[in-house]
Amino acid sequence: MARRWNTSHIPDQSGRLAVVTGANSGLGYATARELARRGARVVLACRDKDRGAAAVARLHSELPASDVALRTLDLADLASVRAFADELAATRLDLLINNAGVMALPHRRTADGFEMQFGTNHLGHFALTGLLLPALLATPGARVVTVSSGLHALADVDLADLNYERRPYRRWPAYGRSKSANLLFTHELAARLDRAGSDVLAVAAHPGYAATNLQTAGIRMEGRTRPERAVALANRLFAQPAEAGALPTLCAATAPGMRPDAFIGPQGGMRGAPAPSFRAPRTRNDTTSELLWTASEELTGVTYDFDVTPPVPA
Questions:
Q1: How many domains does the chain have?
Q2: Containing structural domain, residue 168
Q3: Which residues is 205 bridged to in the sheet?
């Protein structure tokens, strides 16, 4: 990895297919744009069809020769996740960027009854990755990049209460749990890919403190105007732009020599060039990651088959 890694270090992506979840704005949009700029065909996987279409139009205006497409995906609805995977119908997939997420929401449930942050940030991406696994296994050098957060340090997963049903809901610990789950998922996926003899790379990234709509979404849902304004001001004064926040994800997705189960973030923790990031040791616990995996398969109904590798079309 270059010492001051930036978008100029992204290798040519021509002929490669990338799926970026939550690509209509913020980090996802910046990630999709830079991959498209380097020649990748990019599928923008977005919950809101109108916002996704606007993002595609914006990309075409910025990069007229870009090859981008929109597919609807609601990670808080497993039926939508399955429909997306069926519609994509890809026989190969070079990059799966599990970027979409929600942050510090008031208590909500997904369409399938899961706590919203855990259900969206972890279970939705767990199911999506499993459903797209055959295409990933069929593609030499494929990568799965899951976007976590430095705030994973706030809370470990509670295997006895994954859906926050046994204690009063607290939004920030719930967020920390979901982001710890992202790292445990990456750890277990990397281990299982290694045991299967696959060269698919599972890595994680985080943006540091980047100005996106995540920070204000939960506050806005409750109509709390003053806190929303305060957070928006802090974003303007202290956060790095989404383009900088996307660099760790882009680095994890494209930099040569990336190691399995790596966690890439800003060099300074909150901002700076991509570098290996601090990670709570518990997110590399083999027992916890295996138990979370088993629970995730049971909750989503999606099981991973690492033995089926479809042939790559000529």
A1: 1
A2: 11-208+244-300
A3: 147, 264
> What is the secondary structure of 158-221 as a DSSP string?
-TT-TTS-SS---HHHHHHHHHHHHHHHHHHHHHHHHHTT---EEEEE--SSB--THHHHHHHH
Cα–Cα distances (Å) from 247 to 58, 130, 254, in that order, read 20, 26, 10
Q: Is 239 within a domain?
A: no
Q: How many CB atoms lie within 10 A of CB 86?
A: 9
- Residue 111 sits in a domain whose CATH number is 3.40.50.720
Give the residue numbers annotated as catalytic, written as ranges: 175
Residue 276 in contact with residue 263, Cβ under 8 Å?
yes
pTM, 2 dp: 0.90
Query: Tens place of pLDDT for every residue, the chain, 314 residues?
Result: 667 999 999 999 999 999 999 999 999 999 999 999 999 999 999 999 999 999 999 999 999 999 999 999 999 999 999 999 999 988 899 999 999 999 999 999 999 999 999 999 999 999 999 999 999 999 999 999 999 999 999 999 999 999 999 999 999 999 999 999 999 999 999 999 999 999 999 999 999 887 666 544 544 455 556 554 544 444 453 457 889 999 999 999 999 999 999 999 999 777 789 999 999 999 999 999 999 999 999 999 999 999 854 444 44
